[in-house]
Amino acid sequence: TAICQSITQLMMWYANNAKYFPPPSTAKDQFQEELVIKPLHSGDIYASFQFRTQWDTDFLLGSKVSHYRLFPKSLGQVISKFSVRELHISFTQGYWRTMQWGQPFLPSPPGAELWVWFQDTVTDVDLAWKELTNVLSGIFCASLNFIDSTNTVQPSASFKPLGVGNVTDQRFLRYAVLPREIVCTENLTPWKKLLPCGSKAGLAVLMKSEKLFHSSFHSQALHIRPVCKDWQCKSTSWELRQTLNVVFDLHTSGQGKREWSLFKMFSRTLTEACPLASSSKVYVDITDNPQLFELSPATPLVSQAVVLGDGRTYSVYDLTDHATFGQTHSLNVLLRWRAAEREMLRPLLHGERYVAGYGLQTGEIHTLVYNNHPYRAFPVLLLDTVPWYLRLYIHTLTVTSKGRDNKPSYIHYQPSKDRLQPHLLEMLIQLPPNSVTEVTVQFERALLKWTEYTPDPNHGFYVGSSVISALVPSVVAMDTNNTQERPLFSSFFPCKEESTYFMRIYTEPLLVNLPTPDFSMPYNVICLTCTVVAVGYGSLYNLLTRTFQVEEPSQGLAKRLANIIRRLRGVPLLT
Amino acid sequence: MEEDALNQSTAAEADISLHMLSESPSGSVVIYVVPESSTVLPEGVSVYVGQRRTALLRAGGQMRVAVALKEVLASLETWIKQVLQVMSFSHGDITAALSDRVRPGDRSREGLADSMRAFKSSPGYEITFSLLNPDPTSHLLHWDVEAAISSYIQPLLSKMAPVANFSIDSQILYYAVLGVNPRYDPTLNAYTLNADSLSHVINPVEARLGSSAASSNPVLNFLLYVPDSRHSPLHITDHRRHTVPSNAFSSPRWGGIMVYNVNASGTELPVDVHIDMRRVMGVFLPQLRLMLGVQSAAPPPGFLIGPCGNAGLADWELDRLMWTRSVENVATATTTITSLAQLLDQIGNIVINDNIAEQVSSAVASLQLAVGQLEVGNLGLAMQYSKEAILQSERAFFDPSLLHLLYFPDDQKFAIYIPLFLPMCVPILLSLLKMASEVRQRPGQGQAKKD
């Protein structure tokens, strides 16, 4: 029996090792797709798609990469032409409500956000950035070409590279947000085209734009970065991650019934996996089950993952397995709610922002950062980008927590230049436990030139979201070693410590009114002046061209009255 | 020395050894006259066109009698004219190069078709090979495109490097379908695509191909379509409903499409298919030559054109292409500058900055240099100058600063002054009316006075 035991131990060891050393596959690129469905606290439902293409190639070396299989050619050309090290772009419609929905897997601010790390071989980063934004706006059919030096910043600490490599010189980083950008189908179609299966097979079949945009929140993003090829990290490969996050509203589209299915959400069901995908899975978060809802069809596969510092349990539907689709050859996951709505969440970290003050001359920006952790303090990095036409009075900057002054341990401020560069304010603030930290700064509104106003100036001018990045203490210990096996949605931000996890949240964008002139005034003035001139001209013209004749002076009023009376009396008239 | 070379057993060997002896400059043609008795040329062939810039011409029968040099040349003149027609730049080539600008007139249909098929001259081209796999569940396609390009396409492109810059890439597109449903032909036991319907094939595919993000050069697309198992085998038929042996077609100034049938008899799906790149490139290479403007007219009788070797392009063909391209570039740059001048005449308030003026003047300078070099016969330099002229003239023409005041039309200016003009018109019109009525009354009064 002793021999038997040792053999089983050995076999288990082998099995473990097999898990850690993935078999070397011949294909140099692989594709994974994944859909996470998470019933939210408010009763809404959150669907998050992730598509990952990994390619063992090197865009950085001299050899030209020009033969594409799964990786989209247009993006590959962009990477090699502009020497991009990392590229993160997101298009978001709507604002993520942390208080009702908790944390998203991948945060994004309303509008369009783009941040790029260039290779350290790039000599003229600004030129490359300008051309890159133009090319990307062509690829994604978006107005990224409005990104110029007035809304581009180089944050010193908030946006570190997420992939491998240790270039952290901020000269090669560019960050820009367009809060005004409206996201719609024309942005989704090119995004879908980048997937190897397009929208013909696999999870992407569900992406019907009329359903996706009939939602409370829609965010599509694309992340390119170099990652470790395997867990030993001896060589790198390139990762393209395309994500799409949607929150469907229970009240507007549920029609009173408290149940959800894939068909109700997307008006499609799943019939097959993308044949090019090495893994294709649907996860449903069942941590709150069975108190909250009921799930059908049942699946035997259950996966545990630590997501955002919290241990969650997921039901897994493996689409590469034919048994998943059952007799009907289609998969329609159905959720039926049991419990009623619950009260607001108290997320550990939360941010808010608003403009205070009255009049059109000065104002004050308030940023509130909540730490709801009962007993642990943690530092956060706050990044504010304010356009030049709001002139910040940086001497009025105050940071207070619990009624006391809270001095930031690090401040990086780059003043604005009119029509050239925006304000950049970065601070490292220690948040005391269970506290609200308020950051205020006063500003003055600048007068714009008349050509600089937008077509609808009375709507107001947008100021992009503040970015709060933090290492938040986690509830459950995270597994930092093995990131290969984890589901895609839990493995985006690199995690180095077991007790904390990285989190980034975005506040609301601001809408600020600027003093706006009456644009019709010049035309009114022209009209008025022209009329006056025309009247003057008319009378002068009359004077010059009229012929004057002497006329018999007419009878006076008294005489006419006297004549009427005389006629009545029959007396001869006066002449 | 040259006699030794000409005593080689075959014409091809003679051609190579003659080339070793003397390197002829680009644009020139060297004709060697060999006696009729020479065995270099095969039987029945009187002219051999080599792969360099040489031709071997068999002397006629009357040559045996010793006569004056003048008469010899006179007797050879017709042949030499024909040789030059084949090997050098001729009048037809000029009209072909300028076909966009000159009325076709009495040119042959074939020449016109050739010139329309070729891409317009550009300083660079992007060549994209795309493998279309409409059904990845049944076929798993493998193509070694990298090796195929380096062994078949790259030699041609490196030979053509003086003409333009080329960049090559390839991609695989899944679930890409053609725009036409093929028809089943029971006689062939196969599906067919008729030549009439080919024009509709490209559109849906093109949406997936994606334009080149990195440059604005024209893109040559070569698509390899592997039909799915439900529509297999698929044949392209011509207008007379015969199947085309190459099973491929080309679209003028766009690229080529080849249908590659696989007999997927495998039991387990998906079937692994390794594509025979030799066969594919055998179709794409001639298409590429046509697209790039290498003309291949049929030689006149009695001519033998030597094999064009590894590069797929003879030196004299390259010379002809460079002639054509230089002329075309010169014409394009001239048109661009002329249209800029015309635009300035039409719209007066365009601001020409110093840098645009500089671009225009340097474009004109390069144009003059290019024309000068063409006159001398320096093809390489002429090509280079004409490319510079195109680049500079287009940079001047498409400069964004030209657009600023382009759209401030006159009618808007008048609209602003309507509040001035309209009230001012009122007294003028009224007095005109009054004058008119006075004029009408006055003759009446005159008559009344006469009475």
From TrEMBL, chain A:
Protein name (database record): Phosphatidylinositol glycan anchor biosynthesis, class T
Xref: InterPro entries: PIG-T
GO biological process, one term: attachment of GPI anchor to protein
Organism whose genome encodes this protein: Esox lucius (Northern pike)
Pfam families linked: Gpi16 (PF04113)
Domain of life: Eukaryota
GO cellular component terms given for this protein: GPI-anchor transamidase complex
